[in-house]
Design a protein that fits this description.
By secondary structure, this protein is mostly beta strands. The chain has three domains: about 1-45; about 55-205, no CATH class; about 210-335, no CATH class. Helices cover about 15% and strands about 40% of the residues. It has helices at about 1-15, 20-45, 95-105; strands at about 70, 85, 110, 115-120, 120-125, 130-135, 140-145, 150-160, 165-170, 175-180, 195-205, 210-220, 220-225, 230-235, 240-245, 250-260, 265-270, 275, 285-290, 305-310, 315-320, 325-335. Strands 12, 13, 14, 15, 16, 17, 18, 19, 20, 21 and 22 form an eleven-stranded antiparallel β-sheet that branches. α1 (about 1-15) packs antiparallel against α2 (about 20-45). The longest helix has 25 residues, at about 20-45. The chain is globular, with a radius of gyration of 34 Å.
């Protein structure tokens, strides 16, 4: 439109002037044309949109909190949850559920999936019942259906890639989210997924009650003595071996897995939905033996290979290698609640 006006003014200036006012009109028309051109240029500049910001250029670590624990970063999930990077003992970036709970100053989580590696295009083992986890190798999506009568009280995802992990924490009654990633790597994008850990706590909702009975539990194997005490020990041959963890002699409450770890052995105690660790000091006691144990009643309180308090399942410890192990747990098993 402005171009048409300019052409019209120019034509008018040359068809409606006399020789007497030729130079004055020409000067006026030139000024009008120049003004119109400036307006065109100005409008063109104002109509140009601002360039969009590239989220990958965001600063990965936005701020360090005063306590030196939380490091918020820019990998916000679809559900608008901002992850944090927390301090931990592992120099490679792996973090535990206990470290997440400590960083948030909350009680330890009741359950953990344990660290599940992402290898090639699949996870190394199944996730706990109720979870649906998908990933394209970078972004993680999750959903959870709790057991009947239970609700999620808290849940956290430790998303590890390269040498760091993002922790996504959710409060009560959040059951799905997507676009969870590990922290940015040196190239500015999210690192590929290395492993995933889920930490969560359930609460009763509705009229369902939960009751447990304290029991002694042993990793299943050979009996120390043939009569009386049912305590058992496990023979180990420097290969991966998994046995049941029995409470009260016959109640299956989980598994105990022995895995070579250099010159040592990793022992993992993983409880199922029917088992709990008693809330007492040194609820896990382990004794290693070079030879078959003596045929006497064992005294777990005198075990020397390892004694500690487990607060979450799975519980993992690395101990010296022996040919036999006695693994004792002060446990609690689910029982039917008494009627009123």
């Amino acid at each position: 439109m402005l171009l048409i006006i300019v052409l019209f003014l120019y034509s008018y200036s040359y068809t409606h002037i006399t020789m007497k006012n030729y130079f004055s009109v020409k000067s006026t028309a030139g000024s009008v044309i120049m003004a119109a051109l400036l307006v065109m240029v100005g409008c063109t500049q104002f109509e140009t949109a601002e360039p969009a910001l590239d989220n990958s250029q965001s600063v990965e670590v936005l701020n360090e909190q005063a306590n030196g624990v939380f490091f918020p970063n820019a990998r916000i999930s679809y559900g608008n949850v901002e992850p944090v990077i927390i301090d931990g003992e592992n120099n490679g970036g792996n973090r535990t559920c206990a470290e997440v709970a400590a960083a948030r100053e909350i009680p330890n989580f009741q359950y953990s999936s344990g660290r599940i590696n992402y290898e090639g295009s699949a996870f190394s083992k199944p996730f706990p019942a109720g979870f649906t986890i998908t990933t394209d190798g970078t972004n993680v999506s999750w959903s959870f259906t709790p057991p009947p009568g239970y609700c999620l009280d808290a849940i956290a995802f430790i998303v590890k890639g390269s040498n760091a992990a993002n922790v996504y924490y959710y409060g009560p009654d959040i059951y799905e989210d997507s676009r969870l990633t590990s922290p940015n790597n040196a190239s500015g994008g999210a690192a590929g997924l290395s492993n995933l850990t889920i930490c969560y706590t359930l609460r009763l909702c509705g009229d369902v009650k939960e009751c447990f009975r304290d029991e002694t539990a042993w990793a299943f194997g050979s009996k120390y003595i043939t009569r009386g005490n049912w305590a058992t020990y496990v023979q180990y041959s420097n290969v991966v071996k998994t046995v049941k963890l029995f409470a009260g002699q016959t109640y299956d409450i989980g598994n105990v897995t022995f895995t070579p770890s250099g010159d040592d052995v990793e022992i993992k105690i993983e409880l199922n939905e029917f088992g709990r660790f008693q809330d007492i000091a040194e609820n896990v006691k382990i004794q290693g033996y070079a030879l078959i144990p003596a045929a006497t009643n064992p005294s777990p309180g005198l075990f020397t290979t390892h004694k500690a308090k487990a607060t979450e399942s799975p519980y993992t410890v690395v101990v010296p290698r022996f040919n036999y192990y006695g693994v004792h747990v002060d446990a609690a098993r689910a029982v039917e609640c008494p009627t009123d």
